[in-house]
């Protein structure tokens, strides 16, 4: 089991530290902020969901259809708040990563008309994200900034996810 965990950790670290080679490591956070701000600006609709994860269940290897606890489409004021929050982030590039398993319970989907353009998954437990839009390394401040949006729209960054999933 320890060997499997070590193998998983090393594979995860090589994935997590992958960055966009077009930019120096120190510029990655700034580039990430610019790209996310562009995505927010261009999105005609932004939907935030709070949902279960397969690791909330007794058997994380079983098929899992996420339970959507809440979904919220940002209004104009909330979209502006999100954009302003992202633009105000400290651009210092993240250069350390948690050794925990990525277990996101929040997803932000960006739409142009009816087409999904990108998805940003957030794990507040380990402080990491997975964004389908781009792959520069995120700034340290990103998860905290997204947390401000999550709280503003009435969602929670921390909950007893396992109990919530098993109570449904």
What series of H and E elements makes up the topology? Answer: HHEEHEEEHH
Strand order of the largest sheet: 2-1-3-4-5
- How does the major sheet shape up? 5 strands, antiparallel
Number of discrete helical segments: 5
The percentage of residues in β strands lies in 15-25%
Structure class: alpha+beta
Low-confidence stretches: 1-20
Radius of gyration over alpha carbons? 16 Å
If you average the pLDDT, what whole number results? 85
Structure description:
- The protein has 168 residues and is of the alpha+beta class.
- Helices cover 37% and strands 20% of the residues.
- It has one domain.
- Strands 2-1-3-4-5 form a five-stranded antiparallel beta sheet, covered by helices on one side.
- The N terminus is likely disordered.
In short:
The protein is α+β, with helices and mostly antiparallel strands and 168 residues long. The protein is built from five helices and five strands; from the N terminus they run H-H-E-E-H-E-E-E-H-H.
Q: Which SSEs are present, and which pair or pack?
A:
Blueprint: H1 2-16, H2 25-42, E1 45-51, E2 68-73, H3 76-87, E3 106-112, E4 115-123, E5 128-131, H4 142-152, H5 161-166
Antiparallel strand pairs: 1-2, 1-3, 3-4, 4-5
Helix pairs in contact: 2-3, 3-4
């Amino acid at each position: 089991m320890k060997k499997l965990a070590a193998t998983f950790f090393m594979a995860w670290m090589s994935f997590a530290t992958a960055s966009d080679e077009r930019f120096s490591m120190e510029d990655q956070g700034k580039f990430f902020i610019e790209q996310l701000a562009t995505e927010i600006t261009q999105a005609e609709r932004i939907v935030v969901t709070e949902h279960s994860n397969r690791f909330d269940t007794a058997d994380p290897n079983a098929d899992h259809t996420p339970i959507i606890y809440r979904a919220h489409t940002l209004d104009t004021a909330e979209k502006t708040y999100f954009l302003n929050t992202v633009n105000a982030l400290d651009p210092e590039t993240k250069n350390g990563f948690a050794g925990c398993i990525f277990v996101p319970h929040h997803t932000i989907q960006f739409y142009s008309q009816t087409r999904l353009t990108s998805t940003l998954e957030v794990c507040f437990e380990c402080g990491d994200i997975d964004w389908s839009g781009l792959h520069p390394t995120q700034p340290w401040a990103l998860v905290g900034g997204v947390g401000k949006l999550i709280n503003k729209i009435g969602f929670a960054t921390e909950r007893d996810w396992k109990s919530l999933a098993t109570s449904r």
